C-alpha cells in the first residue's frame, strides 16, 4: 500500500490551532455551528472538499494567460476543447458553481409535475428540481442505506426500482441524474456496468441521462480498482467511456475540477444547448463565461485535465483510505466502504448514550474542534425512500460527521494527527450523554445544516 504524491510543495500557508480556551470561546460565539467558525480559528479544515484543494503551478500559469474580454474569450474555447476531449460533449456552459449548472438543466427541461430519478440527488439538485416544479426520486440500491455493509458499488441505481418508477410515470420523466460518486451516503462509487444499464433503460424509454460529474475522476478510479475488466485501462479512457453513455453532465468544478470555483453544464444536443444558453444568460452570465472571470475558466480547464492523472488520484485515494483504516483499527464506527473523498463517522454509534434529537454529529464535531482544532461537517441527513408513485414509504435518519479531505492539501502527518485526536475523544465517549438543542427550535431535520444554531445541553 505504498504510495507517493507525484508533486512537491512550492508554497505553504501557515495554520494555527489556538489555545483550548480560545477554541472554547470561538465555538460558543459560533453558536456551536462549525460553519460559523472563522477559517483562521480552524487548524485542520475538513468541512468540505469543495474549492479547498491546492492548485498546480500550471493552473496558476494558465490564470495569468487568460484574457478578460466579456464575450468570446479564448479561455472559453480552451475549456470547451478540454470538455470535449475528456467528457465528449460538444457544447458547454460555464456557471458560477455546481448548483448554477443544476438550475440551468432543471429550468431547461423540467415541466411542473415531472419526476426526476437519481441514485441519490445531492441536496441542492433536489432543491433545484423542486424549485422548477419537479419531484426528485431516489432509486439507490438498498445496501446503500446500511452504512456498514461492505458492498463495493453502493452508489449504484437499483435498476428494478428505476424501471418501476419509469413504468408508473410514463411521459413524466425528461431526464435521470446519476450522481458519481454518490456523496450523500458516504461518497460511494457507481460501477461502469450500472452506468451502462441505466443508459440502456434511458434510451429504451426516450429519457435523457445526465451525470452529476462533480467527482467523476474519483468514480473512474474506483471503477479501475474494482471492476476487473478496467484494471489495465487508463483513467482518461475510463472517463471517456463513462460519459459516452450519457447525454451530458452537470458538475461542480470545485471538487474533481481541482478549482476554487465554477460549474459546468456539458451537452451533446444542440437544441438543448440553445435553450439552456438562454437560462445561462438569465441566471449566470454571458454563455462564454457564465459569471466567472476568464482566468477561472483557464483554472478549471487545466484542473479537469489534471484530474485524470492516475498517480494523483492514487495518492489521494490512499490518503483517504489511510484515515479510514486507522479509525477502523481504533474501533470508531465509520461508513463502509471508505468514501472516495471523505470518511464519514456514524455519530449515533459513536455516542450511543446521546439521543438522535440532541444531534450526536454536532457533539462529535464540537469535541473534535475543541480537542484538536479540526473542523468536520456535522450532518443530520433525512433520506426519503419513495415508491413508484413518489409517495414516501420510509424516512431514514442519519447523524454523520463527515471528514472531507481536500485534494493535494494536507500531508499524511496532518491526517494522522486527526486520527490521534479522534482516538482521544473515542476514549472519553462514555462520559457523554448529552448533546445540543436547536436554538430556534426549528425542525429537527431542516436539511439546511449550515444555518442551524445550537445551545449546549451539557455543563
Ligand atoms: C455531488 C454534488 N453535486 C453538486 C454539488 C453542488 O456544487 P456547488 O457546491 O459547487 O454548488 C455538490 C457540492 O458539494 C456535490 O457534492
TrEMBL record:
GO terms for molecular function: tryptophanase activity. Belongs to the beta-eliminating lyase family. The lineage of its organism: Bacteria, Bacillati, Bacillota, Clostridia, Eubacteriales. This is Tryptophanase. Its cofactor is pyridoxal 5'-phosphate. Keywords: Lyase, Pyridoxal phosphate. Its EC number is 4.1.99.1. Residues 47-420 form the Aromatic amino acid beta-eliminating lyase/threonine aldolase domain. The keyword Acyltransferase does not apply. It holds the Pfam family Beta_elim_lyase.
